[in-house]
Amino acid sequence: MKQEENDKEKDDILLEDPENGSEKVKSKLKCFVIIGICVVAVIIFIVILMTTMKTNEKKKESNEWSDSYKKAEEFVSKLNRTEKVGLLFGTENMRFLYPQYVTEEEKKGLCVGNIDKFKNDKVDFKGMCLQDGPAGIRFVKGTSISWQAALNTASTFNKTLMYLVGKAQGEENKEKGINSFLSPCVNIMRTPQAGRVWEAFGEDPFYSGVCATQIVKGIQDAGVIATIKHFVGNDQETYRHASSSNIDKSPLMDIYVEPFYRPIHEAKVGSVMSCYNAVNNTYCAENKELLTNILRDILDFKGFVVSDWWSIYNNHSDNFNSGLDMNMPGGYSWGEYFGRDKSYWSMLEEYDDSGIIGENRITESATRIIATMYQLNQMENFPETNMFLDTKTEERKKIQRDAATESQILLKNQDDILPLKDIKTIAVIGDGAFERDCINENDFGCVNDTNLVVNGHIPLGYGSGTTDFSYLITPIQGIEELATKKGIKVLKSGKLIYTDETREVKGEKKTVHVSAKEDIDTGVEIAKEADVAIVFVKADSGEEYSVVENSIGDRENLDVWHGGNELIEKIADVNKNIIVVIDAPAVVNVPWLDKVKGVIFSGFPGAESGHAIADILFGEVYPSGHLPYAWGGIDDYGTKITHLVNYSICETGIPYANEYRYEGIDSAGRKDDRPGHDKEQYNYTEGLYVGQRWFNKQKKKPIFPFGFGLTYTNFNYTDLKVSLNKDGLTAEFKVKNVGKVVGQAVPMMFLTFPDSVKDYPEHIFKGFDKIELQPNEVKTITIFADDHALSYFNVEQNKYVRVKDGKIKVFIAENGDPEQVILKDEIDSKF
Which residue among 30, 595, 685, 756 is the one 20 to 30 A from 804 at the CA level? Predict the structure, then answer.
């Protein structure tokens, strides 16, 4: 009724004064038009604003390095030549090992690499500290977390946890005033014999790059420069200073350079470390093809390149001209303090004066170093160096324990013997379960003048990638802690039986432990009395500079140490419920596999070792670790390391350390006259076929395939859908926990490129996820392979090329065995 009255009123107004009414209508129309224009304008403005914001975000992302370089160029412009050269090489040469050279102020701790501070009337440079990883901060008297090995971190297949590990390590470094953490290592496991495999992420180039990216993001989000290493081909320790890794361009790029790609592009890693060996007969530190043509031009790396320690041997100006930016630690060699004037690069100014190098090249390297420090906000308010500041917080201990636990790999679980249940007595057997006799001497494998045997539990390998422990939870401690709570009796046997010799040690006759065997008799006796026998076996490896248990870094064979195989065989004769726990760098021989019910590969779990192992044994945490490599016998892989020296003495009779060098004359005419020999030639004849790829090509079954790892439940996979666009390939599917307990599934995606990509491996790893599922829970999983994952290095075009012209085959599985594929599909590679 009211609406009708309003309409009548409007009509009356119009009848009384048509002109006036018309004007009012026009006025209203004009208002509507103006409002409409304003609305359209606002919409356009919002669209432009959003587009601008996105553009600015992309611009900001692409300009992050350029902004840092602008600041660095201004800073470096205020330096004279001598000051610029001072940024390019270390001065300490590890003198913290020689107390007579260390001042009271320096007793706070010296870095393994150090750039001196300086001040002029325009700038005040606070110096730069570089320190070892990747398993934690080295040479700090146990004041930092002793983390698990990087290979253990890789075994978690948990990207979030990897980031948290990197972030916590970065925070520790920053609190101690360390600018650059020498981590992570991404050298590929061509063979499990290689001494430093535990420092890296396994055999797969894609997966190694993903792991490194997460670690680098964590370290650098904490404000510390990550250093990805060793570029490239340092894949064994034997003759690493005097050998050439000879690699064709395709495998060089798609296997050995590939792990560096993602950390550079996705994590903007600040530093790359060159390696000791040569590649294609040119040493890495002076290899322009590697350091400039590949690293700078193809990978577009923006940070600085630092040498591995004492990896500059000859052609000292050539390495600088080839693209090396920083010489570390500065002196000639390990074992003596030489000081600044004894550095090879102390001659850079002389080289410049004589025209061998140019000052522009000096400026370029100085600018790269300072730009990286700006990139990580280190040029102002960075903490003063204090290596002995305690950074072991409870939160970091928990992250280490979580990572160590999640890295435990269940390889066998016959009759569901694990988790332990309904038992009254456990026998813990084997030296590897018990305390060491030298907690703080891990750097040299707990070996000293009178004990050449590594005894007790091994939580890490030896060399520059390890740490000194302030505490270590051994397996026996972790087991007894939980067994006591559950009312289970623990029987123990962990003594080694030594073989001794009388030797002259530092001028005195002393008894020396030269070898050892497990105490088999005692182990057998207690195994007879137990419901379950848990047998610990071990092996170790590390860097070449120290001979440990007759190994120079690399392992001569894959047997466990101290007669561990015989120990297991004898225990199996008296107890059918055996669980074997293996602490080792990677693969070991398992001739007893059919005689035991359970096998856990523990690897090197770090300080919380015992808690991690016990939590899995008793079911406090369900296992979810997976192998980042294929597990086979020593002769099953595409290559094998043959020792060319007889342990500590060479065939010539010259001590190993002295024989390890070689002759060379640099381009300035300075002769390196230390004794040595020509480079050994290591030909990478397996090409693109490393690890699981080699097994697939040879149609050979490994003992355990890449990605293998059991849980205490099972999963069902259904409904695979695959799509492709310019950004990459997406696989979507459902996963259901069909067991009775919670578990973490690790679905993996493998691809076979079209036939148009000639002579390329099939079934290559390109994506994964990790998800927790309750019993009967179903989740939809999406795995994405980006543009680079769908690319290969085209040698003719000298660049990465996206696959096209044909079908991409897609496989979903729980490991790398092509015969164990669960879901599969294919899609046209064109988009």
Answer: 685
415 belongs to a structural domain: yes
Return d(Cα 166, Cα 163) in angstroms, integer. 5
pTM assigned to the model:
0.90
Q: Is 493 left (phi over 0), alpha (psi -120 to 50) or beta?
A: beta
In this predicted structure, the answer to whether residue 54 has a pLDDT above a threshold of 70 is: no
Q: Note the pLDDT tens digit of each residue in 620-640.
A: 999 999 999 999 999 999 999
Q: How far is Cα 44 from Cα 50, in angstroms, rounded to an integer?
A: 10
Q: Are residues 729 and 817 in the same domain?
A: yes
On the question of pLDDT at 667 being above 70, the answer is no
Residue 40, pLDDT above cutoff 80: no
Under DSSP, the state recorded for 183 is -
Q: State in Å, rounded, how far the first CA of the chain is from the last one.
A: 63
Q: Give pLDDT, residue 150.
A: 98
- In terms of domains, do 231 and 293 share one? yes
Element (H, E) at 231: strand 225-231
User: Residue-wise over 774-791: b if at least 16 C-beta within 10 A, else e?
Assistant: eeeeeeebebebeebbbb
User: Does the pLDDT of residue 670 top 80, yes or no?
Assistant: no
Read off the pLDDT of each residue in 548-556 and give the average, rounded to a whole number.
85
Average pLDDT in the 653-671 region? 41
Higher pLDDT, 193 or 652: 193
pLDDT above 80 for 36: no
Rounded alpha-carbon distances, angstroms, from residue 663 to 317, 322, 648, 660, 678: 16, 20, 21, 11, 8
Tokens read off for 209: 């790059």
CATH assignment at residue 779: 2.60.40.10
C-alpha span between 531 and 487 (Å, rounded): 14
Q: What is the DSSP letter of 117?
A: P
Please give the share of the chain, as a percent, with pLDDT higher than 70. 86
Measured CA to CA, the distance from residue 517 to residue 536 in angstroms comes to 13
* Residue 29: partners with Cβ closer than 8 Å, 6 or more residues away: none
CATH number at residue 277: 3.20.20.300
pLDDT at residue number 43: 57
Distance set, CA 542 to CA 55, 408, 803 (Å): 48, 21, 39
User: In the listed set 353, 375, 397, which residue is the last one of a domain according to the structure?
Assistant: 375
HSE-CB for 686 with a 13 A CA cutoff: 22
Return the higher-pLDDT residue of 738 and 44. Answer: 738
| Same-domain check for residues 565 and 613 | yes
- Geometric angle at alpha carbon 651, from 678 and 502, rounded to 5°: 140
Which domain range does residue 275 map to?
A: 78-375
